[in-house]
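Subject: sequence -> structure tokens, single chain

Hey, anyone have a minute? Need the predicted structure for the following. Not urgent.
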Amino acid sequence: MFALRGFALRTACIAAVGAFATLGCGDDTGLAKRYSVSGKVTYKGQPVEKGRIDFVPTTQDARPAAGQIENGYYKLTTLSPNDGALPGKYKVTVTSVEIDDSEMKAIAKGGQFHHDATFLKATKNAKALVPSKYRLADTSGLEAEVKPQSNSLPFDLTD
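Reply:
Had a minute. Here:
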């Protein structure tokens, strides 16, 4: 009889842990449920052709999310592609630059792959497509709140 009670107790504990894990996690990654976040990024009313958008959490217990901007549109990723973001408040950054990588491509075409100096030169001479203030969370002035639902969050950048 004692063995039966021990078995029942173990079974109840395993069920409780399983229920807790199911309630607290959105999937097998161990993170809470993420919600779809997408939107349009414009600068002076025109779509930002390419770049990156980052959602920087305002609390330490949250996780950042980011996405690539293509033809003005983005979708956020926290862990898995396009899995969205955790609910909460974020500061937002946008980086969009045009890099002339023709020298790096020429080096790679010639069979050489070590081109650190060329890469540094190209990034140093990169042309910013949006004002540099949007690169940092403290200067961008952009904020967003991800709600536990599908989120459409547009950003219109100005000078």
